[in-house]
């Protein structure tokens, strides 16, 4: 697919006056789940049941990598990224993706506008309390969320080897307390409100498919010189344990608060996954926002770079070297 055709398709997913058709959404979900279920074991090792595990292993790859922080309904973030001509590259990000010359990795949290949509959430909450689960405010919120995830799924279907999306704590459409998930609320009762909206507007079949999509997402990715997860890893797990998943692991990689992770967990995990010395440990994550460009934790080995007011990404070129002042760049 050439970039102009791809961009035209992705632009068609922008929010409009109406929500997407349920049959179209069902087809897109079904096709994306099939891709996630059949990824190559070359980079996504199989678990004991012979299914795609929860680890992405690109330690063999020399391709440049772009790491995208929490999206939270910012569909335009991905569109701007694809059109961006970053200093390290001669072509736009989207052109390079179409030529399969780089890897884009999103750290998860595709939905919920959070602080950006705080007033909208509060109005939607008032509607929700009156059993109006799909009122005007909630529709505006969900148009952005659905647009964002349709773009994510399109990119995954078109470039299964070169575009990846990790599971974050917001990938919990059922607002459940199972399988490492926790119910979510911040400015309203966002988790339950989103679940109720999907059930009312689209029905249980699509609600189930979204939950299935979420359950098939990886939670951790290893490259030659760095690793990535949604949140700071709370504790150490073996490579086999990461591949197998499980409630404890998923929670430990998606929900960790600041100053909670075991000291040295990042270094031990990094060394185990890459084979490099703990002294070279470099791990990226989003989840907890930062007010500036980045924040270093775990004695500098863990880099938080999710600033919800910015559209910053991490760019790692073939050398694998990282300087936070040079390699965290804006796509605006």
Characterize the structure shown.
With 332 residues, this protein is an alpha/beta fold. It contains 12 helices and 11 strands. The strands form 2 sheets. A 6-stranded mixed β-sheet has the order 1-5-6-7-9-8. Strand 5 and strand 6 (227-229) form a beta hairpin. Helix 2 (22-37) packs parallel to helix 6 (136-158), helix 2 packs parallel to helix 8 (204-215) and helix 7 crosses helix 8. The longest helix has 23 residues, at 136-158. The chain is globular. 47% of the residues are buried.
Provide the descriptors you would attach to this structure in a database record:
332 residues, globular, alpha/beta, 12 helices
Task: Spell out the blueprint of helices and strands.
Blueprint: H1 3-11, H2 22-37, E1 55-58, E2 65-68, H3 75-83, H4 93-98, E3 103-106, H5 118-129, H6 136-158, E4 163-165, H7 190-201, H8 204-215, E5 220-223, E6 227-229, H9 239-244, H10 247-254, H11 265-274, E7 283-285, E8 295-297, E9 302-304, E10 312-316, H12 324-327, E11 328-330
Parallel strand pairs: 1-5, 2-3, 3-4, 6-7, 7-9
Antiparallel strand pairs: 2-10, 5-6, 8-9, 10-11
Q: What is the CA-CA span between the terminal residues? A: 25 Å
Q: What kind of sheet is the major sheet? A: 6 strands, mixed
Shape: globular
Count of beta strands: 11
What structural class should be given to the helix and strand makeup? Answer: alpha/beta
Side by side, the strands of the main sheet go: 1-5-6-7-9-8
Q: What ranges have pLDDT less than 50 throughout 5 or more consecutive residues?
A: none
The sequence of SSEs as H and E is HHEEHHEHHEHHEEHHHEEEEHE
Number of helices: 12
Which percent range describes the beta-strand content? 5-15%
Helix content: 25-40%
Mean pLDDT: 97
Say what oligomer this is. Answer: single chain
Q: Using only CA atoms, what is the Rg?
A: 19 Å
């Amino acid at each position: 697919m050439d970039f102009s055709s791809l961009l035209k398709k992705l632009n068609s997913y922008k929010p409009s006056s109406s929500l997407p058709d349920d049959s179209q959404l069902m087809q897109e979900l079904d096709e994306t789940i099939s891709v996630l279920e059949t990824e190559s074991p070359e980079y996504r090792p199989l678990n004991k049941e012979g299914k795609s595990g929860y680890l992405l292993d690109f330690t063999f790859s020399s391709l440049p990598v772009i790491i995208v922080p929490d999206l939270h309904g910012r569909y335009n973030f991905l569109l701007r990224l694809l059109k961006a001509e970053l200093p390290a590259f001669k072509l736009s990000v989207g052109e390079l993706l179409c030529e399969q010359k780089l890897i884009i990795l999103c750290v998860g949290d595709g939905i919920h506008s959070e602080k950006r949509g705080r007033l909208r959430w509060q109005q939607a909450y008032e509607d929700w309390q009156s059993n109006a689960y799909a009122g005007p405010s909630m529709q505006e919120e969900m148009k952005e969320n659905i647009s964002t995830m349709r773009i994510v799924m399109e990119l995954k279907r078109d470039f299964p080897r070169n575009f990846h999306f990790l599971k974050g704590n917001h990938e919990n459409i059922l607002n459940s307390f199972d399988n490492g998930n926790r119910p979510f609320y911040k400015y309203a009762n966002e988790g339950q409100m989103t679940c109720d909206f999907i059930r009312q507007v689209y029905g249980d079949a699509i609600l189930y498919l979204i939950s299935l999509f979420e359950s098939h997402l990886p939670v951790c990715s290893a490259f030659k010189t760095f690793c990535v997860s949604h949140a700071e890893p709370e504790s150490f797990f073996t490579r086999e344990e990461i591949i197998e998943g499980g409630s404890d692991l998923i929670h430990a990689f998606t929900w960790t608060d600041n100053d909670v992770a075991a000291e040295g967990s990042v270094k031990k995990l990094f060394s185990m996954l890459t084979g490099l010395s703990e002294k070279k440990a470099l791990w990226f994550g989003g989840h907890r926002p930062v007010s500036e460009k980045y924040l270093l934790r775990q004695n500098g080995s863990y880099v938080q770079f999710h600033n919800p007011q910015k559209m910053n990404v991490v760019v790692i070129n073939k050398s694998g070297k990282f300087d936070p002042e040079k390699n965290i760049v804006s796509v605006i």
